[in-house]
Amino acid sequence: MIYRGASFTCTFLSLTTAGAANTVTVPTVQVIKDLAAAAAATNAPTHVAGGVWRITLTAAEMTADVTTIVHSGSGLVGGSLAISTEADYTAARAGYLDKLNVAGTLAHTGIAAQFMATGFAVPGDAMSLTVTERNTLAGVIDSRLLDAGDATDLIASIVARIGNTNLDQAALVAAIKAALFDVGSIANKLAVDGTGRVTAANMVVAPDNNSITAIKLKTDNLPATPAAVGSAMTLEAGERTTLANLVNTTLTTAHGAGSWQSGSGGSGGGASLSEATVAALEGSIQILLVSPYVPGAAPVLILPEPSPEPSLCTVFGDLQTPAGELAAGVELVFTLLRPETGAKGARLISGKEVTTTTDASGRFTVQLERNDLLQPLNKTKWKVECASLWNRAREITLTTPTFNIGDLIS
User: Fold this and answer.
1) Do 364 and 328 meet the contact criterion of CB atoms below 8 Å apart?
2) Which of 100, 169, 184, 281 registers the highest number of CB atoms within 10 A of its CB?
3) Which of 92-106, 167-181, 264-278, 347-361 tops mean pLDDT?
4) Residue-wise pLDDT tens digits, 51-65
């Protein structure tokens, strides 16, 4: 059982790309919590033996349902290890269970308090009720006392206090009920105006008329049927005429006075639109753009600028891990392949090497030669290696000013 939120030491096997056990190169380890973005591990791995490495993950790195470690390195075969954690059983609870014997009773009664749930009442504690709970309890007790037959004794006590031995108990109950429900008696004692209502003079709070008036001033200007978002706007006749005159003034200022109709303009004619043009404007829906349109969506792919040097190619790419996460901090090695001297070009040997690393967004850009002294333009071959993402090297021939590495792995 692996505890969630507790440090944990795990092991993994690291091999070189040649298939041998890696006992020297310290792998780079990244931590992925619940398929979130990868982050560098807090602790570095150490070699145990025979290519087996171990790493201690911190409590913070283990605070997840599934913690995944990804190990990689130059010249190494990358790999990953997923660790599922358990939160329902903690180390503290396991210690408590150790204090129980097989029969399920406390083996150490002297520390029984350790098994008490915190935040709850235990036998012997004083219980404090809320106001609502006390009122509810009092009402229930009163109801139970009356239901137990004390109602008769209570009314008899009232009759005795009045001192009228001839007063019928049933008649007294009826009189009390009538007084309670008679608007003209008890209720009138609460009302100033005699209507039986509870007025502002005793219990009712007057409304905040000032705030209501302020809100009314703002809502009075709202139309009865406001336009929905995206609705076409229809201008009134006066607004259309004003807009037409504004267009005429703008054209006249830019091109001189003219009759701006049927594509003609410039000189001649009056300094206003023709009647036909004004009529056409007034009969159509007018849309006025008050600011330039700017697309809101982000570009799917950003193409870098080619190198001004014609013998160079701009190689770029946006890399992702097999889990679909951004491949940040991933190393790529480009090796120039040259034809062996004296051969007909049938065999290639390794030459110059260029290494680059992806940024936080998984993107990289590097300038590579399109030709050299031994190979003509557009015939240069490069070997591409990425131990973290690929299990074998790839070869590319640079024939364009730019090359997207995504074309290689798509």
Assistant:
1) no
2) 281
3) 347-361
4) 999 999 999 999 999
The residue type of 108 is: H
Minimum mean pLDDT range among 131-140, 193-202, 259-268, 373-382:
259-268
Q: Name every residue whose Cβ is closer than 8 Å to that of residue 247 and which is 6 or more positions away in sequence.
A: 260, 273, 281
Identify the three-state secondary structure at position 325: coil
Report the alpha-carbon distance of residue 390 to residue 387 in Å, rounded. Answer: 6
The first and second tokens of residue 319, run together, are 């890399």
Write the DSSP assignment of 43-112 as a string of letters: SPPEEEETTEEEEEEPTTTT-SSEEEEEEE-TTEE-EEEEEE-BSSS-HHHHHHHHTB-TTSSBS-GGGG
- Span 226-230, mean pLDDT? 73
Burial class (CB in 10 A: 0-12, 13-18, 19+), 398: buried
The CA distance from 293 to 296, in Å, is 9
Q: Determine the longest span between alpha carbons in the chain, in angstroms.
A: 141
Given a contact cutoff of 8 angstroms between Cβ atoms, the answer to whether 55 and 8 are in contact is: no
Question: Are 112 and 29 a contacting pair, CB within 8 Å?
Answer: no
Which runs of consecutive H residues, i.e. helices, occur in 194-270?
A: 209-219, 237-255
Provide the mean pLDDT of the chain: 74
